[in-house]
Each structure stands twice: as structure tokens, then as C-alpha cells.
Amino acid sequence: MSYFSPSIEKLIESFESLPSIGNKTAIRLAFHILNSSEEETNNFIKSIQDAKKNLKFCSKCYNISDTDPCEICANSSRDQTKICVVEDVKDVVAIEKIHEYKGLYHVLHGSISPMDGIGPDDIKIKELLARLMEREIKEVILATNPKVEGEATAMYISKLIKPMGIKTTRLAHGIPVGGDLEYTDEFTLGKAFEGRTEL
Amino acid sequence: MSYFSPSIEKLIESFESLPSIGNKTAIRLAFHILNSSEEETNNFIKSIQDAKKNLKFCSKCYNISDTDPCEICANSSRDQTKICVVEDVKDVVAIEKIHEYKGLYHVLHGSISPMDGIGPDDIKIKELLARLMEREIKEVILATNPKVEGEATAMYISKLIKPMGIKTTRLAHGIPVGGDLEYTDEFTLGKAFEGRTEL
Question: Cβ of B14 under 8 Å from any chain A Cβ?
Fold first, then answer.
């Protein structure tokens, strides 16, 4: 049963349909919108419309961007011989934040997951291979997620790339910095042992 | 420094400006919008626009509503001799949810708070008095919040109303149902003692 007027109810439902927004937060957000000025509301709506209108996929790396090619592909000062392969646009941002990697990216937009009916043809693997043929690439860093699907995707891609004589690497597994041995799960600890380095 | 394209950055900022939305949630919401269909996005925008356009204050009780008078004021089956005075529109909903009260409401849109420069003229007290003159009201329930400002507002209003011979009541204070004596603050416990009832 609804206790609000239809228009508020509709607005609350709209907010509730967003991820990680529960009923209480949706009500708070709806009333925030109602109490906002006309201009604030219009700016909010405009930012949504602009984002939907302006953003496109980079035709090279499939990152999302206002421009095509994206800022990273268009930046000639970046190392054009390295490609870091990630599952998602958000992973590009995560890696950019560490200011460590200066090469290019390739966004797969998913990972191979037979359980969900996602095969190699459903993600941007063909497009990656096309890029590798086109230009001389020296290293492909497979930065898919350290989960079953991400590992499978990395294995699949590395098998395709190795015959091309391109170096393929995978991000290291190990104990998180500042982490605690006691609370590290056995798989991570196992990987940390495997990958131990000499001092 | 920004790692996202300008349009995404703008959208994330828009979401971040909403109450109780932090950076991580804003990013999640922005990408949810980007991954939504054209139709879903348009529905979301429409719900905001409709709410801003359709909602108005009820000219009687100052509740927010698609209609004027609001559904509650327009409902003749409700007890027209009782008015429950609340600070906020959300309080109307909170009280409606208990299905206990069948009278009318009056939304003050705030409480007297000299610290914030809000005096009796800044909230809908005059309008309440006008309603009390207009029609025969038997009881005014002062359901302002049990905080300093709410208490002061209730005191102020009751002093104005009492000479009119209208019964004024205040919601009971006490231990919450299912609550724990041990964890009840001393003020509430004091009020619970004061208001104890005979079995």
C-alpha cells in the first residue's frame, strides 16, 4: 500500500530501482529532489542526458569515452607496445589510479562464463586479436579478475596469443599490502608462496 | 584528478551531490545509468520531471500531493475534528503507516529554532490557527519531534491554542516496544516513569 502521492511514489520507485539504493534512501533522495531548486534538478537531469548522449565506446580499446579514440588511445606519449586487457571500464580507472602503467588498454566487456552463456565470441577477444595483428605489440598484460571466469578468460587469450610470439603476463597474486597472514584465505596464501621472490 | 571521461565524471558528481551517496555508490549508479536502456533512462528522468511538475502543497494542511486539497483533506470519511500537527511531510507517512489515526494533518514545514534563525512566522503556525478558527476542531495532537526544537514548537503552539478551548495533546514518551531498559537513555526512562500507567 502506498502512503505517498502517485508522483512521489513513482519517483521513490525510480530511485529504488537503482543498485544499492533501499527504500529509506530512495525516500530521502526523492525528497531531496523535491526540495531542490529548478536549476539543480535540471542540472541533474542534464548530466544524465549528456552522459547517455556523449559517451561512446572507443573503436580501438572499447573503453567508454566522450571522444573516439579515447583519451588514452589518442595519447601518443603512452607506450604503444603494451596492452593491458581488462574485463570492465571501471578496471581501467582502477589501474590508472596507481600511476604505474603507461601503456594502452583493451576492455573485453565481460569474461568467458559458460554458466551464464557467455562464450569467447560475446566479449571483445576478436577485436583484441585484430589489434595485435595490426601493430607491433610487445606485451599483453592479462588483468582480468582473479576469479574462475577471469582466470579462464586469461588462459583462453594467452593460448591464442602465445603462438604470435607476444609476451603475455598476468598480475601477481599474493597477500594484500597491510594484510594479515592469519586472515588471508588459503588460495591467496598458496599463490603468495608460489610467487615468493628472493630478497 | 579525474580518471573518467568528462561526461561520466559529471554524472558521478551529480549522484555524489545527493544525500547519503558516497563516491563508490555514485560510480556504481553512473555506470548503471550508462548500461540502462534508452527507455529506462527516459522513465527515470520523467519520474523526476513529473514529480517536480505535479507535486504541490495542499492549501489546507501543507502536505505535499498531486492534488489540492490532498487525498487526506479530500477524504470526507476521515475525522474532520482532529488535526495532527507534524514538522515534515515524511512524518505524515510515518503516522499513516500505523493505521491508527483517522483525523487530518497539518504540516509545519519545520520547527521553531532560534539557533537556525527560524521563528514562529517561518513555519505554518499562522495557517494552523486560521484552520482552527474556520472549523470546529476538537483536538490538536502535537506530533512534533521529541527534540528541543520540536518540544519548543509544541509548547509555543499549545499556548496559542489553549485559550481557544481546544484540547491539545502530545505523543507519549517512553521505552520503545521491544526495547531494553538497560540501553534506554536516562531522559526517555525518566519520561517513561513519569507517564507510567496503572495495570
Answer: yes
